[in-house]
Amino acid sequence: MSTSTSTSTGTGTGTGTGTVPASAPTAPTAPTAPTAPTAPTAPTAPTADAARSLADRLARNAAAFPHKPAVIHPGPGGRPRYREVTYGELQDTVEEIAHGLARAGITRGTKTVLMAPPGPELFALAFALFRLGAVPVVVDPGMGVRRMLHCYRAVGAEAFIGPPLAHLVRVLGRRTFGRVRIPVTLGRHRFRGGHTLAALRTAGGPRTPAADVGGDDLLMIGFTTGSTGPAKGVEYTHRMALSIARQIEAAHGRTRDDTSLVTLPFYGILDLVYGSTTVLAPLAPAKVARADPALLVDALERFGATTMFASPALLRNLADHLTTLGRTLPDLRCVVSGGAPVPDSVVAALRTVLDGEASVHVTYGATEVLPITSIESEEILAETSAGSAGGAGTCIGRPVPGTRVRIIPVTDGPLARLPAGTALPAGSVGEILVEGESVSPRYHRAPHSDALHKVPEIGPDAAAPLTWHRTGDLGYLDDRGRLWFCGRTSQRVRAAGRDLHTVRCEGVFNAHPLVRRSALVGIGPAGAQRPVVCVETTVPAGGPAWRDLVAELRALGAEHAPTRGLEEFLHHPAFPVDVRHNAKIGREQLARWAQRRLAPPPPPFSRARAARLVPLAGWAYLLGGALWAAFADVPDVPLLRLLWWADAFLSIPVHAAQIPLALPRGRAAGHGGAATAALTMLYGATWWRSL
Question: Does this model's pTM top 0.85?
Answer without folding.
Answer: no
